């Protein structure tokens, strides 16, 4: 499998005074296309407004920085206006119309990761805006718009022509937006920084897994996700997804070393990753990470709503389940060496604290 797995930063696609939209390009990160994965990032300045739109892909949004307002309209449902903040994960199934607004001084930054298997272009999201210079109104004649919405020509011209911006605009500070309601978060949003931990290992790391139990909408999206925080110089056990899922990882904070082993035992990636980079681990390939002294945090999506992983080191290691005789024969080693191998890591699982 001769595909470049080098981690990449996102490139600017469009933007203005209200904010900027970035995306990872499948020409620079070929695994996006191969794995039918899209990845993008939205950064909204104060009073930045991402116009209402829907996408050709189901996605998971993760708030990397700041706070703001998100409007979501599920098919044939009423609009839900939701307060969002750093650490929030939001499931956005097919057919969802959404908008975003930032009224705070701090930049609002949101990561989008999703499945492009039904998209117009593999490895890339295509957004369809309801308004603006590239909105759907602009594709229809005045006659069609007027007849569809029972409007006169003057009103139609205002609807089509009054918003010159495209995608992202900056509103006047006096503009009124609907007030978000905390109760609307229920079932729509999970804050990964506040949710109960699925794994918590002292001096090792912590994990929150996003699945159909804590955010049922991910079942409709068809993706699972997790937020992993690895302590300084700690190691994440080598492991792989055993249900043919791809793992798409965005480095939220910090840096560290990564190795990926693939077919025929070849090391296909050895590099240092840092905040802002994205990389993808192919199906069944084994990945391991070691954080730098400052630690490392990452958000991943897995292309199944309830992912299953097999770890190759630690107390849950698949190797530890094999009989001693099989391991001796498989490694072609003495019982003493096999016993030494088996006797290590009997209490640590998934994360290993730095050596003393």
TrEMBL record:
Keywords: Disulfide bond, Seed storage protein, Storage protein. SMART domains: Cupin_1. Coiled coil: none annotated. Residues 3-157, 195-339 form the Cupin type-1 domain. Gene3D superfamilies: Jelly Rolls. InterPro entries: 11S_seedstore_pln, Cupin_1, RmlC-like_jellyroll, RmlC_Cupin_sf, Seed_Storage-Functional. One of its GO terms (molecular function) is nutrient reservoir activity. Pfam families: Cupin_1. PANTHER family: OS01G0976200 PROTEIN (PTHR31189:SF62), OS03G0336100 PROTEIN-RELATED (PTHR31189). Belongs to the 11S seed storage protein (globulins) family. This is Cupin type-1 domain-containing protein.
